[in-house]
Design brief:
The complex is a heterodimer of chains A (341) and B (366). With 341 residues, chain A is of the alpha/beta class. Helices cover 38% and strands 18% of the residues of chain A. In chain A, strands 1, 4, 5, 6, 7 and 13 form a six-stranded mixed sheet that branches. In chain A, strand 9, helix 6 and strand 10 form a beta-alpha-beta unit. The N and C termini of chain A lie far apart (53 Å). Chain B has 366 residues and is mostly helical. The radius of gyration of chain B is 27 Å and the shape is globular. Classes of the chains: A alpha/beta (341), B mainly alpha (366). At the A-B interface, helix 1, strand 2, strand 4 and helix 4 of A face helix 9 and helix 14 of B.
Chain lengths: 341, 366
């Protein structure tokens, strides 16, 4: 087995030399219009975030970012070439120009934002490490986990986060380490451990693989910060703005109550915020080189953030993840988009 | 002296030595220890087979469209059923399925033509398969010509991609391997050292590393925007890797041919290529069949490694399907299906090679 860490180092070393080259790179916006499609890098299969459905169409929260960008730039949410990338090659693919947007549940960290020649454009999902426990244990908070035996998948940062958390809180735990997610679920199901820990989005996917999903629950406590968001190349500010505001448009639409269903009626709305969002009062896409209806295209074809969330990972999906931190700021979450004006 | 001129008529074998019971007694119960092991073996078989059959057939769900149609007591073949097209064609647009279908059909016809001994014009079919068919297949699958809509390679996948990778790898590796093997035995120092270095380099590096270099490092060295298609990169890597292995298999076969054969051919005034093509190679290739097929089978299975560079081969597309939140938790069914398909292909290759060995057997068999 090769050493992933070394490879990643090697790759980032290579990418630093390349970062200079990509700054001088031509206009991604123009290339996209000429090509007639957005080159979007997605995961090679992550429940709720990006996976092909029965008909071979990509679906997921991350996929909807690609579709929103395509709707804004080309007026057609389906004009996307999806390129599936694994964790190691994702940044190279972006740096080398193979993809124009990387929307692949990538955690926003200082190193990635500052040393790879890349820019994070926002956060489309606030993830974090959480716990799944059997309902009949009667545990409601992570503070009550002292002395628990905990199933973990090996080789991930979850192991380190877990140790940090228990040490910081002066609690003991008994780690039981597994190799793959299937084994981890198996171990939890067989009663090898009381608690299973992973990122909350993963826990939801693991939970439905249990024989009796209803018997287990995911605690609301989160012990690490994993803000996931789309990434673009540094040095192409127009493109950076387009991807950034595509996500903001979806969030603003939710805030103003514009959905894919009522978007057409809302064109007549008297509300100045909605009129600006939908391009009825001035053209706010102009600065990005877009038409006035850029946000209307996103909302009518992809939907607002709430629709995308519920459809892919929320209550309308098998994952049934609650909004929690991903609720709008008006509902007590973190999702806050600057105004369009 | 007693002379009996009558021939004693043949008698049937004694009752105790023929028939299934005698066979059982002779082979399975010929002693207390063997009987014990037979019973033990039968018990283990019973333990394994009964739950498997129950899971895979008796309790399995076959018809439906979603996970709600599965009882989860037995296998949920509904999942494989719903995804079957995807497992075969990858993410190829469904309106264009007829294109890979034609290519599949031609591919099967060519294979059948080559395999069935009675059919004539083998040489022309082979020329067609090597020169014309790849062009037709490319035009049909990729499109962009004759008003066929373009289907870029990142939408190719499933069994189609596995077969493509394996076929190109095999067809490309064999001739390169032959040339390398001959080169390695050559007396010309530059040719010889080039072949040795090439073979030892590619053979000394794991395939996974080659694929990784091709997909992660290579784009960094090329100028931005000048991307070589990811599938082409994988194909080149796979072919070069296989050709190094093939070269060593072939060299093994060449060494088994006595030097006298080549010397006798040289004495008849044959040139190098005639000696190789008419005398040495036909004998050597025949002996190498098990080795070559072995390499092909391992190549066929190695194609699954392209999964790590984001290409959806059969196994990759099964895994991608497993990550659809509507189908979470059916990994066993998916993997069993993939294993079954791989087994069918590898087993038929193996059977064909055995047939070929018997057919070409001219008394060398030891």
């Amino acid at each position: 087995m090769f050493n992933k860490k070394h490879l990643a180092l090697l790759v980032s070393a290579g990418s630093i030399t390349l970062a200079g080259a990509s700054t001088a790179q031509a206009d991604t916006f123009e290339d996209t219009v000429n090509r007639g499609a957005v080159q979007c890098g997605v995961s090679d299969g992550l429940p709720g975030f990006s996976a092909p459905d029965d008909d071979g169409n990509w679906q997921g929260l991350d996929v909807d970012v690609c579709r929103a960008v395509a709707a804004a730039v080309l007026g057609d949410a389906e004009a996307v070439n999806y390129i599936s990338l694994n964790a190691v090659e994702r940044f190279t693919a972006l740096q080398s120009g193979e993809v124009d947007v990387l929307s692949r549940n990538t955690t926003w960290t200082t190193t990635r934002d500052t040393t790879l020649g890349l820019n994070f454009t926002g956060v489309n999902f606030y993830d974090g490490q959480g716990f799944m426990v059997a309902r009949d244990l009667g545990i409601s908070s992570a503070d009550e986990l002292d002395g628990a035996s905990i199933c973990i998948q090996s080789g991930t940062t979850t192991e380190l986060n877990l140790a940090d958390y228990f040490r910081a809180n002066g609690m003991d735990f008994n780690p039981i380490v597994f190799d793959t997610s299937e084994q981890t679920v198996g171990g939890y199901q067989a009663g090898r451990c009381d608690v299973l820990t992973s990122d909350t989005s993963q826990l939801a996917a693991l939970r439905i693989q249990l024989d009796d999903p209803e018997a287990s629950m995911i605690l609301t406590d989160v012990i690490s910060k994993e803000p996931l968001g789309p990434v673009v190349r540094q040095g192409d500010d127009v493109w950076f703005n387009i991807v950034k505001w595509s996500l903001f448009a979806m969030l603003n639409a939710e805030e103003y109550g514009v959905t894919s269903e009522n978007a057409e009626e809302m064109l007549e709305s008297e509300n100045p915020d909605i009129a600006r969002l939908l391009g009825q009062d001035g053209n706010y896409g102009e600065g990005m080189g877009l038409e006035a209806d850029w946000a209307y295209n996103i909302i009518s074809q992809v939907g607002n953030y709430a629709e995308s969330f519920e459809r892919n990972v929320g209550m309308d999906s098998p994952l049934e993840i609650e909004r929690g931190a991903n609720a709008l700021w008006t509902d007590g979450g973190f999702q806050y988009a600057p105004p369009i004006r | 002296m007693i002379h009996n001129k009558e021939v004693i008529p043949p008698q049937p074998a004694p009752k105790g030595t023929i028939g299934p019971i005698a066979w059982l007694r002779g082979n399975l119960f010929n002693g207390p220890i063997n009987s014990l092991f037979t019973l033990l073996g039968l018990y283990v078989l019973y333990l394994l087979v009964v739950p498997t059959v129950q899971w895979a057939f008796i309790n399995a769900d076959w018809v439906g469209t979603s996970r709600e149609d599965c009882s989860r007591v037995g296998a949920c073949w509904v999942f494989v059923n719903a995804r079957f097209n995807q497992f075969v064609y990858g993410l190829y647009p469904s309106s264009e399925y007829w294109r890979p279908n034609i290519v599949f059909g031609m591919f099967a016809a060519i294979i059948a033509w080559m395999v069935i001994p009675r059919l004539p014009f083998k040489r022309w079919v082979a020329v067609f398969a090597l020169l014309v068919f790849p062009v037709i297949a490319y035009v049909l699958l990729h499109g962009g010509y004759f008003d066929l809509p373009r289907v870029s390679t990142h939408r190719w996948g499933g069994l189609m991609l596995t077969l493509l990778l394996a076929t190109v790898g095999m067809v490309g590796a064999l001739p390169i391997g032959i040339v390398l093997a001959l080169g390695r035995r050559s007396n010309m120092p530059i040719v010889k050292s080039f072949c040795v270095v090439f073979i030892e380099f590619w053979r000394g590096v794991p395939l996974i590393t080659i694929l990784f270099m091709a997909s992660v490092m290579l784009p960094l060295f090329l100028p931005t925007g000048m991307g070589v298609d990811r599938l082409v990169r994988a194909l080149i890597g796979l072919t070069l890797f296989q050709s190094a292995y093939m070269a060593e298999v072939i060299r093994g076969g060449l060494q088994a041919i006595p030097k006298g054969q080549e010397e006798a051919a040289a004495a008849l005034g044959m040139t190098y290529w005639k000696r190789m093509g008419l005398i040495v190679m036909p004998q050597a290739l025949k002996m190498m069949i098990p080795g070559i097929v072995n390499t092909f089978i391992s190549l066929f299975k190695d194609t699954t490694l392209v999964m790590i560079i984001g290409l959806f081969d059969l196994l990759g597309i099964v895994q991608a399907a497993l990550s659809d939140s509507r189908w979470l938790g059916f990994s066993l069914e998916g993997y069993v299906f993939a294993a079954f398909v791989f087994w069918i292909f590898c087993f038929s290759m193996s059977r064909y090679s055995q047939y070929l060995e018997r057919k070409l057997n001219t008394g060398h068999k030891r």
